């Protein structure tokens, strides 16, 4: 299962890389330092695989999303994939800030929901992220995967597989932080997983191709619309 999904995840990263062709690749690099108040969430999660979700507290759909995050967290933990840090960064816009408590109430205590200061730098912009993006970092804080729609939809297996790869493999090279019995844990979960067929292309379409000359303007317009 890991081989097929791993290939699709690689293609997803390549697609995102094409979209970011005018910028500098962030793969296997630490993100810019960002704060929520005086708190540095990435520093506090150092030594753990870290999953950062960029979600917008503005619809019923998001309630279902965070529920599935809890389900995924519990599933992986029951399989021995522990010491994984999950967090949500809410959108900085005024409406999302107004709905922040609704989002926070719908997620378990194991997944913190961070409220941005509207007067501080936008964390989403610092991470080069958009709504419903998930960023997955290894134990040394290096970016392993940055998944956007449709790959970040938790109904599909890509998010789970990306977390497993970040936990079990060293895609960004060696890291000084280690996990006891990691080989036993990862071999056991790989051998007990039921085979999963890759979904047909119509179920998980490739990200749409964009004209690089217009990408910057399109991205700016999208962010402006959410403020």
UniProtKB/TrEMBL annotation:
Region Disordered, residue ranges: 191-227
InterPro entries with a match to the protein in the record: Selenoprotein-P_N (IPR007671), SeP (IPR037941)
Main location: secreted
Cellular compartment(s): Secreted
Segment forming the signal sequence: 1-19
GO cellular component, one term: extracellular region
Cross-referenced Pfam families: SelP_N (PF04592)
Compositionally biased region (Basic residues): 215-227
Biological process per Gene Ontology, one example term: selenium compound metabolic process
Name by which UniProt lists this protein: Selenoprotein P
Classification lineage: Eukaryota, Metazoa, Chordata, Craniata, Vertebrata
